[in-house]
Specification:
Layout lengths: L2 H7 L4 E4 L13 H10 L4 E4 L5 E5 L3 H19 L1 H12 L2 H15 L8 H12 L6 E4 L2 E3 L2 E3 L1 E5 L6 E8 L5 H15 L7 E11 L2 E11 L2
Parallel strand pairs: 8-9
Antiparallel strand pairs: 1-3, 2-3, 4-7, 5-6, 7-8, 9-10
Helix pairs in contact: 1-3, 1-6, 4-5
Length: about 220
């Protein structure tokens, strides 16, 4: 998957070399051309970062973020197919076994081994996958809630689906089961669900070399 696209989709800025001489015929040829064209057409904001030809690019407003989120999902669908839909359905239905199955398959097929050593890459990847549910949810990542900063929080704003919180950890050693339990415990310790009402699905996710271990809990919060 494209690390930059998902980073932009969740509200981060990305350092990128841009080319002001590109045309639409270059769009499918060079990854850099995609960003350059989106800057020139106003979909992205670009601020020089001091290096020649290098910029910090970001999404300029909420409306453009919705457009860009759709673009991210189109790109991810090309790589992940039905597995992305299976993963989202598993998250919403509270089925960690199906989540593990779908995520492992997508990871093996789309995630670079270099990126798989960093749980932040999985956090961004999964945030991108879940963006398809925006509208029914307010989806935030690396954002303050409770007494800390959650990894991924999905607050239901319409419909009957549950709220969702996912906390990620990675490990090159140690027990993945224990670490996923620690991730779940952090959700409670920091009260990332503060302000939510109704059903809340909590997932502690530990990643080791593309293989996830997930600890799951369901709770209900009174309004």
């Amino acid at each position: 998957f494209d690390h930059g696209l998902v980073a932009l989709g969740k509200g981060d800025s990305v350092e990128m070399e841009l080319d002001d001489s590109v045309t639409y015929s270059d769009f499918e040829v060079d990854e850099r051309s995609l960003y350059s064209i989106m800057v020139m057409t106003g979909y992205l904001r670009a601020i020089p970062d001091g290096s020649e030809g290098t910029y910090l690019i970001s999404i300029p407003n909420k409306e453009m973020r919705k457009v860009f989120s759709k673009h991210i999902m189109d790109r991810l669908r090309e790589r992940t197919g039905l597995d992305a839909s299976k993963f989202r359905n598993a998250v919403i239905s509270g089925d960690p076994d199906k989540m593990i199955s779908a995520l492992t398959k997508m990871s093996m097929e789309t995630v670079s081994i270099r990126l798989s050593k960093d749980h932040t890459s999985y956090q961004m990847f999964i945030t991108g996958l879940m963006m398809d549910l925006e509208g029914d949810y307010v989806i935030t990542s690396d954002f303050e809630s409770g007494s800390g900063f959650h990894d991924l929080r999905m607050r239901r704003v319409r419909g009957n689906s549950p709220n969702v919180i996912i906390e990620f950890k990675d490990t090159s050693n140690g027990d993945p089961e224990r670490i996923s339990e620690d991730a779940l415990a952090q959700i409670h310790r920091k009260q990332y669900y503060y302000g939510m009402t109704g059903r809340v699905l909590l997932y502690g996710v530990c990643i080791r070399e593309k293989v996830p271990t997930i600890t799951f809990e369901e709770m209900y919060l009174q309004g």
